[in-house]
Design a protein that fits this description.
The chain has 222 residues and is an alpha/beta fold. The chain has 10 helices and 7 strands. Bound molecules: S-adenosylmethionine.
C-alpha cells in the first residue's frame, strides 16, 4: 500500500519494540506501514470519526492485518490502554493537538515518547509539551509534494528553552541544513506578505511580525 513521504518519515522515527497509539489515524496507512517494518511495533489505530475508521478497517483488511492492528473509535487519548508507550498525532492543527494532550494529563504521565507532526502552531505545541513534563529529543523536517512538515519527538524530562528555541525548534537550531533554510525562508515570506495585508491599526501585531522576520533573517542569513 502506497504511503506518502511524510507518513513514511514519521514511521521510520518510531523505535523498535514500541507500543503505539496513533490518534487520528484516518486511513491507517501509517499503522499498516509500522507493523510491516519487522521492528516488533504494536499499534492501536484510533480516530474520533466513524468514516475514517471504516476506511482504516478496509485498508487493514486488504492487507490482512486484522490480527495485528486494533482499531478504536474515540476522541484523543480516550482510546489509550495500559502498556502503550508512544503516542503519534500527525496531520492535525497544533491547537487541536494541544487540546488532545490537555484533556488527558494522566495518560501523558505513562507515555515515554510523543511523536507529533502539527500542520501549524508548532511553537505552541512545543511550549505546551515542554511545560508539561517533556523535552524535545529530536526534530525533523520532511518534504512531501510542495510542503515541508515538522516532526517533533518528545521524551519525558526537563530542559530549559529560550524563546528562540521554541520559535525555531532547539534541535533544528543545532542541525539546520537545507530544509531548515527553505522552511524559514517560506516563513519569512509569508510574514512579509502578512505585513502588507494587515490594517494600520494592528500596530502590536505588526511589531511582533517584524521582530520575527528579523529573527529569521539572523538565522538563515548567517
Ligand atoms: C487530516 S487527518 C490526518 C491523518 C493522519 N494522522 C495523517 O497524518 O495523515 C486527521 C484525522 O484526525 C481525526 N481527528 C481529529 N480530531 C481528533 C481527535 N480529537 N481525536 C481523534 N481523532 C481526531 C480526524 O477524524 C481525521 O481522520
Amino acid at each position: 500500500m502506497k504511503i506518502n513521504a511524510r507518513l513514511k518519515k514519521i514511521g521510520d522515527l518510531v523505535e523498535a519494540n514500541s507500543f503505539c497509539l496513533d490518534v487520528g489515524c484516518d486511513h491507517a496507512l501509517l499503522d499498516i506501514y509500522l507493523v510491516k517494518q519487522n521492528k516488533n511495533i504494536k499499534v492501536i489505530a484510533s480516530d474520533i470519526a466513524e468514516g475514517p475508521l471504516e476506511q482504516a478497517k478496509n485498508n487493514i483488511k486488504r492487507e490482512r492485518l486484522e490480527n495485528e492492528i486494533e482499531v478504536r473509535l474515540g476522541a484523543g487519548l480516550k482510546t489509550y490502554q495500559e502498556g502503550i508507550n508512544t503516542i503519534i498525532i500527525s496531520g492535525m492543527g497544533g491547537r487541536n493537538i494541544v487540546g488532545i494532550l490537555k484533556d488527558s494529563p494522566k495518560v501523558l504521565k505513562n507515555i515515554d515518547t510523543l511523536i507529533l507532526s502539527p500542520n501549524n502552531y508548532q511553537e505552541e505545541v512545543k511550549r505546551y509539551c515542554c511545560k508539561n513534563g517533556f523535552y524535545i529529543e529530536n526534530e525533523e523536517f520532511v518534504r512531501d509534494s510542495r510542503f515541508i512538515y515538522q516532526i517533533i519527538i518528545l521524551k519525558h524530562g526537563k530542559q530549559k528553552y529560550t524563546k528562540k528555541d521554541y520559535f525555531f525548534g532547539p534541535v533544528f537550531l543545532i542541525k539546520k541544513g537545507p530544509l531548515f533554510h527553505e522552511y524559514y525562508e517560506r516563513e519569512k515570506k509569508s510574514r512579509e506578505i502578512l505585513l502588507t495585508l494587515l490594517p494600520k491599526n494592528y500596530r502590536y501585531k505588526k511589531h511582533v511580525i517584524k521582530k520575527e522576520i528579523e529573527m529569521i533573517k539572523n538565522e538563515i542569513e548567517d
